[in-house]
Amino acid sequence: MNPLKATSNTAKNLTLITPSDPALQQSNEERLSHIAESAYYKAEARGFSSGYELDDWLAAEAEEK
Known about the structure:
Layout (H helix, E strand, L loop, with lengths): L8 H4 L9 H24 L7 H12 L1
Helix pairs in contact: 2-3
């Protein structure tokens, strides 16, 4: 089962809210970029074995807070 797929009507009806202030939008884009980079390095450290992508992302996201 793909954990990234929406599995309920609630999840399908969610709307992504982005800040209207360009400075906040840039900040959010930078944050996501840092999370993605950290998740990549986590995957690299374990040899890019598949099945842990979400774990890598969530761990990187938790570190970014």
